[in-house]
Amino acid sequence: MIELAHVSKFFGDEAAVDDISLRVAKGKFCALVGTSGCGKSTTLRMINRLIEHSAGDILVDGQNIQSYNPVKLRRRIGYVIQSTGLFPHWTVARNIGLVPRLLKWPRETVLARVEELMNLLGLPVEEFAHKYPHQLSGGQAQRVGVARALAADPDILLMDEPFGALDPITRENLQDELAKLQARLNKTVVFVTHDMDEALKLADHLVVMRSGRIVQQGTPLALLQHPADPFVDSLLGGLERGLKQAALTRVRDHMASLGQTLPAQSRIPAEFSLRQALSMMLRDHCDRLTVVDQQDMPIGELSLRKIVKEAQLDKVGARDAY
Amino acid sequence: MHINRYTDTLSANQARVLPLVWGVLLLVTLVGIPYLEGLFRWLEPDARQVIYHRADFYTLLGRHVLVVGIAALCTIIVGVLAGIAVTRRRGRDFLPLVGQLASLGQTFPPVAVLALAVPTLGFGTLPIIVALILYGLLPIVRNTLAGLQGVDADIKQSARAMGMTSWQVLRSVELPLAAPVILAGIRTSVTINIATAALGATVGASNLGDPIIAGIVNGNMAYVVQGALLIALLALTVDSIFDFYQKKLYSRLSAS
């Protein structure tokens, strides 16, 4: 668990981070979002004491980080950065095994752990263990970066725009894998990004920052439904907000049972998002879809009218409905 | 890509062979000079002696290597340590000072250092060692600074973030990554000093500079050539050895 209480950071007279409070419960994924220079990376680095905060308290697992030895604190917190920061003169395997070796794990345990992580991140051991970072593609290098951060099985993972430098396809793949990984490992993650779609896709808790302050925080859905001000609204995509909200909603939650009428021709798996369903309706010029399960058996029906109506119900209480 | 790899291995082979070639040439010259009286006689027909005889060349070479070696050892220790110290957080204030001091050492001509050192240290080997240390410091300090400052800030930051201590970051990350640049500085320093050490002969430090000075004083070109030839071959041998290790370091850093 990570807790920040009234934390500030001053560089000279300038406040890079200004009185922020935030709590990330154990196993939750928190995304810090904002434009560059808003203090999100500074906030992240204060948690593992790469930057010392000027005021307030930061607690890790209920204990003030000032009471930890910084070196020991960092060894129990995974850290991933955009440029990977891998050691160019070390092989992939050696890079991944860094923290366990610092913790003086026995040699065999380190080796086994490195293999386990390489498999977990889809890096075949025979192919990659002895490669050097410059021989990897951007995506592969960042997998190694994530593996290195996870090596000593830390409870906490800090990620600073880890996928920011990757091409869109690789980025999306790694986002998906990170989501799967997180579902399995249940780390407490603080993830810095300026890509709102990435944040919406991955986060349980969304924190929007602007000039060192937290503008709004809450679940992605809550923010989409009630953005606090025009800034948050524009970060969330303005007019696109409806679709982004749809992207977070599953078809399963809005389908009706199969009616008497002829089932629609277009089929959509129940686990897909409403956004994908809407896109399919537009593509296939229809206003009804047949919802199918994993075996491609029809289990329900989705209609445009119902989606729109229920979206309105979601909006009850929203201050600015379109 | 293919062509590149070919030329790379070619130069790597060269780097491996060259020290041997120069080393053998040095040895052959060392052993051969006394037998080449005819050749040197042709160069200097009127001289009484054409082969330098006041000391044998093995001793001169040995003393030359010793003087340069001792000076190099001191320079490396002082230069690298100073470079490390002023790139640490605590020593950062001294960075400009150290840079300027090292530059000053090199702008000060070794002859002047000798002239100033003799009255305090007396004649012999010590003044030339001091002069070489001062003269050789700059390339090492400068390259140590450049090498350490050239290490990617993100790599250093992530090393710290992984929980490495400052000492571990220095030893396992900064120094290995800066090593090729530092080695290049040592190479420059030592190679220059092999030539500069000949000046020691003027203050009574007998080394390969002796035949050169004696030759100049007596107007005997043959002596000068003998000393110069051996110094040049020594410098080439040592330089090619450094080249070999430098290539090895680089290839390890960008190993394939």
Automatic annotation (TrEMBL), chain A:
Keywords, sorted A to Z: ATP-binding, Cell inner membrane, Cell membrane, Membrane, Nucleotide-binding, Repeat, Transport
Pfam families reported for this sequence: ABC_tran
Q: Where is the ABC transporter domain?
A: 2-236
Q: Name one GO cellular component term.
A: plasma membrane
Instruction: Provide the membrane topology annotation.
Output: Peripheral membrane protein
Per UniProt, subcellular location reads as: Cell inner membrane
Under the heading SUPFAM superfamilies, the entry gives: CBS-domain pair (SSF54631), P-loop containing nucleoside triphosphate hydrolases (SSF52540)
The main location class comes to membrane
GO terms (BP aspect): amino acid transport; glycine betaine transport
State its Enzyme Commission number(s). Answer: 7.6.2.9
- Report which reactions are catalysed by this protein: a quaternary ammonium(out) + ATP + H2O = a quaternary ammonium(in) + ADP + phosphate + H(+)
Q: Which residues form a coiled coil?
A: none
Q: Where on the tree of life does the source sit, at the highest rank?
A: Bacteria
GO: which molecular function terms? ABC-type quaternary ammonium compound transporting activity; ATP binding; ATP hydrolysis activity
For this protein, the record's PANTHER family field holds:
GLYCINE BETAINE UPTAKE SYSTEM ATP-BINDING PROTEIN YEHX, OSMOPROTECTANT IMPORT ATP-BINDING PROTEIN OSMV
Q: State the family named in the UniProt similarity comment for this chain.
A: Belongs to the ABC transporter superfamily.
Listed under subunit, the entry gives:
The complex is probably composed of two ATP-binding proteins, two transmembrane proteins and a solute-binding protein.
| Protein name, as recorded | Quaternary amine transport ATP-binding protein
| Lineage, uppermost ranks | Bacteria, Pseudomonadati, Pseudomonadota, Gammaproteobacteria, Oceanospirillales
UniProtKB/TrEMBL annotation, chain B:
Query: What organism, scientifically named, is this protein from?
Result: Vreelandella nigrificans
UniProt-annotated location(s):
Cell membrane
Q: What is its main location?
A: membrane
State one Pfam family annotation: BPD_transp_1
In which family does this protein belong, per the annotation? Belongs to the binding-protein-dependent transport system permease family.
CDD domains named in the record: TM_PBP2 (cd06261)
Lineage from the top down? Bacteria, Pseudomonadati, Pseudomonadota, Gammaproteobacteria, Oceanospirillales
Q: Which residues form the ABC transmembrane type-1 domain?
A: 61-242
Question: PANTHER family under this entry?
Answer: GLYCINE BETAINE UPTAKE SYSTEM PERMEASE PROTEIN YEHW (PTHR30177:SF32), GLYCINE BETAINE/L-PROLINE TRANSPORT SYSTEM PERMEASE PROTEIN PROW (PTHR30177)
A cellular component term from Gene Ontology for this protein is: plasma membrane
- Name of the protein in question: Osmoprotectant uptake system permease
Q: Does the keyword Cell membrane apply?
A: no
Q: What is the membrane topology here?
A: Multi-pass membrane protein
Q: Which UniProt keywords apply?
A: Membrane, Transmembrane, Transmembrane helix, Transport
Ranges annotated as spanning the membrane? 20-43, 64-86, 111-138, 177-201, 221-242
Keyword Nucleotide-binding on entry: no
Gene Ontology biological process = glycine betaine transport; transmembrane transport
